[in-house]
Amino acid sequence: MDVHLDQLTMQFNDTTAVDSITTTIKDGELVSLLGPSGCGKSTTLMLLSGLYKPTAGDIYFGDEKVTTMDAEKRGIGMVFQNYALYPHLSVLKNIMFPLKMQKVPKKEAIQQVMEMAKLVQIDHLLDRKPAQLSGGQQQRVAIARALVKKPKLLLLDEPLSNLDARLRLEMREEIRRIQQEVGITAVFVTHDQEEALSISDRVMLMNNGVLQQENAPQQMYRKPENIFAASFLGNPPINFLTLHKTENNTYVIQGSSQTLELPSMKWQTHEAFQMGLRPEDLYTVPEEEGLFSGEIIHMETIGRDTLIRLQLGDVTVRALVDPKSRLRVGDRCSLAIEPQEVHYFDPKTGERLRGGNDNDAQANLEKHA
Amino acid sequence: MMLKPTWKSTLKALLYLLPALLILVTFNIYPIVKSFLMSFYTNYDFFKNIINERGFSNFIELFQDPNFIQALQNTVIFVIGVVPISIILSLAIAILLNSKIKFSGLFRTIYFLPFVTSVVAVAIVWSWIFHSDYGLLNYFLGWFGVDPIDWLTDPTFAMPALIILSIWKGLGFNIIIFLAGLQSVNEQYYLAAKVDGASAWHRFKSVTLPLLSPTMFFVSIISIINAFKVFDEIFALFNGKPGPANSALTVVYYVYQKFYEEWEFGLASAAAFVLFIIVFLFTIIQLIIGRKFVHYQ
Ligand SMILES: Nc1ncnc2c1ncn2[C@@H]1O[C@H](COP(=O)(O)OP(=O)(O)OP(=O)(O)O)[C@@H](O)[C@H]1O
Ligand SMILES: [Mg+2]
């Protein structure tokens, strides 16, 4: 079942939590809703579930308009952020609850519960109460409860946020496995970019209630549509340099006296623009080949990466460099980047002007088309 | 932090408890023990405080007294008449007040007023409401073609009048307790139940009631104990009489009569003891039932 949102808007008093979102979630797809805290992810999910009714816009399940339909009737499955398992019911009864509401005969219901419990691997815990389960087990119960009625749409609101790092990794693979095994359409809310990029077929990036970009995960990373998308994705975060045109048609980096020239900049007519450079795309070069240079003010090695921070004038630039390079804090260092890895943005609108790995992105697009 | 009790910590705790304990022992525990012992005084000179004889004859006499039997009956009718309706009504009102309505703070205050108003004042107002000629209730019933009822002077209607007053009087307290209970139920469960396809009725039955069971348990125990002890309302409503033709004579009223009006201390104590046993049994039964149905989070 395709889910179609048309100009979906939710207004709370003076805040617009969701601002005219239009998109289609395809049948069998796992879509991540990604964005910073308070950007309207949960609200979007609540709208999809029918627990909130939109102040404007429409929701379609397939061809059916469900905008005003109550949550009880929509037949969707939902996993809440804190699971919301009924504390007074055993695991078995928790999972069976939606079936009981559908008046499925008890024998049949128990059988379906057993099947679902096996799928999420909690069939040995059926007699326990939720309070006697670990976070990961509770989550599986919540997923089983959401799936047992065979919903057409599964909604998950930050289901992994209460778990430790390792369990998160395990659980997110688990969710992906179950989702693909059942072949259900799913919307997964998270504010963790890594989670979103790793689990989903498509990422929807939101900010201030507005849908910023929706793409396959890699493409969103490679070709961010605006400054927000570029800055939200990536760790360590992308570097931004603001450039201003000088009289002799070169560009000077704002906050420093360095000018720089790139072959791909010839097309530029803008007086000023913003350049986004991912730390992992930068590499050290001898002084004369460098795009710009500065003093190393900080160095740290995390696992296999070495991160340096370079001071050029008032701005700092982060770069991931070869751990074997013999750089020290206080050294002068020059950095370069492949021209096609540079992202250009309009500093006024924040929109992407050009750049990003176009070819790659194209390939990615075709793959998912 | 849970430490194992030691002699030192126990003594220290006792020291803190002592002031309250002293008062409780003097005014509660001692009278209870004393009245228990008194119920066995069969020949007692209360002027000189000499006990000539002890035995069970008070209890035998008690159960041969038709007034006491009637008091027992009336009390049971009163409890059955008041407690269930009071609980259902206050739960319903609490749920309404807990939903998003305008002026809910005002309504809460209105419903809580009877609880903080003196029983005597309340009873006086109600005796006017129940008045057979000028009463509001009869006037209201008149709209439906019901003939005027002698609420306070007809033995058939004295008990219903008392029950109506008591339900109304107890409502405020129960509502406040239920409201507190309802507010402690996490909203998430209702959202989850909605998504799971539960109708409003099922949400009430499968989420509200079970999660409210500790509150329900508390309210029902308190209500039953209070109902068994009813006295002030009768005294005030019927001007210091147990209703027309003893129709509102309850066990506590019987105790009062025997103790203060007839100076039958042994008999009064025995009746009080019987009431104590009844309340005790009821509470035990409720505890047993409660263990099965009450869910503590
Ligand atoms: N019931 C409500 N009444 C008023 N404002 C609300 C309500 N629910 C959400 N909002 C506002 O709408 C905006 C979006 O909230 P929402 O809960 O959807 O954010 P979110 O993206 O889920 O954030 P988080 O990652 O912190 O969960 C916030 O500014 C929030 O304050
Ligand atoms: Mg949220």
From TrEMBL, chain A:
TM segment ranges: none
Pfam families: ABC_tran, TOBE_2
Keyword entries, A-Z: ATP-binding, Nucleotide-binding, Sugar transport, Transport
One annotated Gene Ontology cellular component of this protein: ATP-binding cassette (ABC) transporter complex, substrate-binding subunit-containing
Bias-annotated ranges (Basic and acidic residues): 347-357
Stretches the record annotates as Disordered: 347-369
Keyword Signal: no
A GO MF term: ATP hydrolysis activity
SMART domains: AAA
Domain called ABC transporter: residue spans: 3-233
InterPro entries in the cross-refs: AAA+_ATPase, ABC_transporter-like_ATP-bd, ABC_transporter-like_CS, ABC_transpr_MalK/UgpC-like, Mo/tungstate-bd_C_term_dom, NA-bd_OB-fold, P-loop_NTPase, Transp-assoc_OB_typ2
PANTHER family found in the cross-reference section: MALTODEXTRIN IMPORT ATP-BINDING PROTEIN MSMX, OSMOPROTECTIVE COMPOUNDS UPTAKE ATP-BINDING PROTEIN GGTA
Protein name from the UniProt record: Multiple sugar transport system ATP-binding protein/inositol-phosphate transport system ATP-binding protein
Taxonomic lineage of the native organism: Bacteria, Bacillati, Bacillota, Bacilli, Bacillales
TrEMBL record, chain B:
SUPFAM superfamilies, per database record: MalF N-terminal region-like (SSF160964), MetI-like (SSF161098)
PROSITE patterns attached to this UniProt entry: ABC_TM1
Classification via Pfam families: BPD_transp_1 (PF00528)
Lineage: Bacteria, Bacillati, Bacillota, Bacilli, Bacillales
Native source organism of the sequence: Paraliobacillus ryukyuensis
Family statement drawn from the similarity comment of this UniProt entry: Belongs to the binding-protein-dependent transport system permease family.
GO cellular component: plasma membrane
Annotated localization: Cell membrane
The keyword Transport appears for this protein: yes
Lineage top rank: taxon: Bacteria
UniProt name for this protein: Carbohydrate ABC transporter membrane protein 1 (CUT1 family)
Bilayer-crossing regions: 12-33, 76-97, 109-129, 157-182, 209-228, 265-289
Main subcellular localisation: membrane
Membrane topology: Multi-pass membrane protein
Residue span(s) of domain ABC transmembrane type-1: 72-286
Keywords: Cell membrane, Membrane, Transmembrane, Transmembrane helix, Transport
